Amino acid sequence: MTSKEHRVFRFAPSPNGYLHLGHAYSALLNFDLARQCGGRLLLRIEDIDTGRARAEFEAAIYEDLAWLGLDWERPVRRQSEHFGDYARALERLDAMGLIYACDCKRSDIARLAAGTPGWPRDPDGSPLYPGTCRDKPRRAAREVLTQRGVALRLDMRKAAALAGQGLSWREFDAGDIVADPAEWGDVVLARKDTPASYHIAVVIDDALQGVTDVVRGKDLLEATSLHRLLQRLLDLPAPDYRHHGLVLDENGEKLAKSVASTALRALRAEGWTPADVRRRVGL
Length: 283
What we know:
Number of strands: 10
């Protein structure tokens, strides 16, 4: 990483489940790196998906991190308290003619892709959107977000053309990596039940909080291309990035809340100590 002054790191979990060893690794690594360079560590609660976020999970995040011996700056930024920041970013993209309303269902897109051999997919494996609604009459973003079942998509062709050439990011131990946001297609940036996608919210949050170093799992490496595109379109600074390896289970699979990976609080109840956690994750 670069020797930036006043370096700012952040750990940004979602309160939709209990933290596991993978979260512990990322949190501890951010904490250690910030301490080593005399930087700052922020904690951000990514609760933009209010339908899944729960108060007990948020409380458990604070408890688990304190048990690990981490400290962070207060107050903690909670995404659900900053919908206006994301709305302003979406309206700016809208004014640039870069987003459009889409009422296509995920099931319809999946069905179309399943019936078409070789249908392109994004880095996460989801079928790329075919652009069905791209050329329909445009509607204001503010109006679209009042209607259930309608999403706001980024017009990737227009966005990439406006961003121009030379889009890249600085990756720890790898140098400059050329971004390829087009591999994500026309991504959804917002819908009524989730007024900002992870992608738009994270770039706004990082910029407003002055984050200089984004240290996160390598499962988000490909998403950085999209984040760099949004940063350029919105005139936001580009942090340095470090995508670390993932903590795997005994079957070699990534730990995840969705598969009920063993939670830190369960390990603590079994008698694990913070030192045991550090040894297990290689720190």
